[in-house]
Specification:
This protein is of the alpha/beta class. 38% of the residues lie in helices and 14% in strands. It contains 15 helices and 12 strands. The site of pyridoxal-5'-phosphate has 15 residues, from helix 4.
């Protein structure tokens, strides 16, 4: 049966403490126990339904986790203070000294920096590969490999991972396939394609308001329990805990995600087609010119489209900066990093979100100076937006 992530979210029913339609916010960092024995049992992990301390879990965080697990089709989920909190906890839970990770080379700059500069300090090594070349991915696996890591749609180059084939590879070698699905919530459901762990930066489309950072790890009960373990759980011990007030507000925003994603995708598809027709080098998974268009089509939950992210290459950083400044001046969006906002956001990844990646490696992976990454907004009149962007392109010499 077709997986329906938005139905799964819709079907959750909440009764607040006083019968409210939203769950009450748990405004406590610590919880009482009626008996000392129950407190002991809870620390041992043997008192289901009891809360001990909000770094471990809290009702508000569990509600949000439940909704995200429903969306991704996992047994459960653990929310965290940021996307990086989710990524670092997951990888440090699975890997220890001497272990090895095979990672896509085009990933968010922060994740790249973590794997390139931080984890080697604790003797975890990473091979960065072209994730679209399965033979190269397989060759990079060695006897110490524990994880294949990638983004379903990569930041910023919008490379698409063939999750089904990667899952088969992970299974063959007994590895965990960890997917960052931040760019394609609802559109791609990695668990149904064989992934073991799905991560999101909630900061982006899922919250959609650019008012907070947040993250989530969706996976099996066993893995999430291990992350929360008081003795050796990375979420519990590294402490990237989400605050209950935030969990409550993200849960409310998440209920409109299905409507927003359709609009983001519709607008991005419209602009991508226009930009390409205008002769701009345009990358969007929904364009037939995208090298992984067919792979995306095979994986996607069709009604949500190909997502809200696109890139164009305008030839030079100077031109990119001039265009972005003018577009902001004309109120067509913000010159800002991040994504998933109601207004369009644009930035030049080479000098911002991917600046952690050395210039030489940026070149190798095709991250050029003139690349502009767009997170397309929810504009009601995208034709008008296009006309106005085109005027900016002409004024800045990006288009003739
Ligand atoms: N994953 C992707 C694909 C991202 O784009 C980002 C942030 O830009 C992150 C993870 C990190 O998330 P956060 O900023 O919430 O820590």
């Amino acid at each position: 049966m077709e997986f329906k992530p938005a139905n799964n979210i819709q079907d959750l029913q909440y009764f607040g403490e006083f019968g409210g339609v939203n769950p009450s916010i748990s405004d406590s960092s610590t919880y009482t126990f009626l008996s000392a024995k129950t407190m002991f049992d809870t620390f041992e992990g043997n008192a289901d339904g009891c809360y001990l301390y909000s770094r471990h879990s809290s009702p508000s965080n569990l509600y949000l986790g439940e909704a995200l697990a429903a969306m991704e089709g996992t047994e459960t989920a653990n929310v965290s203070a940021s996307g990086m909190g989710a990524i670092t906890s997951t990888l440090l839970q699975i890997c220890g000294a001497g272990d090895h990770i095979v990672s896509s080379r085009t990933i968010y700059g922060g994740t790249y920096a973590f794997l390139k500069n931080f984890t080697p300090k604790i003797n975890i090594e990473t091979s960065f590969v072209d994730i679209t070349k399965l033979d190269i991915v397989e060759k990079a696996i060695n006897k110490n490999t524990k994880v294949i890591y990638c983004e379903s749609v990569s930041n910023p180059l919008l490379e698409v991972s063939d999750i089904k084939s990667l899952a088969a590879l992970a299974k063959k070698y007994g590895l965990k396939l960890v997917i960052d699905n931040t760019f394609s919530p609802l559109s791609i459901s990695p668990i149904t394609l064989g992934a073991d762990v799905v991560i999101h930066s909630l900061t982006k489309f899922i919250n959609g308001s650019s008012d907070t950072v947040g993250g989530v790890i969706c996976s099996s009960q066993e893995f999430i329990d291990s992350l929360r373990n008081v003795n050796d759980g990375a979420c519990m011990l590294l402490g990237a805990t989400m605050d209950s007030f935030r969990a409550s507000s993200i849960l409310k925003n998440m209920r409109t995600l299905h409507i927003r994603m359709k609009q983001h995708s519709k607008n991005a598809a419209f602009l991508a087609e226009k930009f390409e027709a205008d002769g701009l080098k345009t990358v969007y998974p929904g364009l037939t010119s995208h090298p992984s268009h067919e792979v995306y089509k095979m994986m996607m939950n069709k009604e949500y489209g190909f997502g809200g992210m696109l890139t164009i290459d305008v030839g030079s950083l100077t031109k990119a900066n001039a265009l972005m400044e003018l577009m902001q001046h004309e109120n067509l969006g913000y010159l800002a990093v991040s994504l998933g906002f109601y207004k369009t956001l644009f930035s030049a990844p080479g000098t911002s979100t991917s600046s952690e990646i050395p210039e030489k490696e940026q070149k190798e992976m095709g991250l050029t100076d003139g690349l502009i990454r767009f997170s397309i907004g929810l504009d009601n009149d995208i034709k008008r937006t296009y006309m106005l962007i085109k005027e900016c392109m002409i004024k800045t010499g990006v288009l003739k």
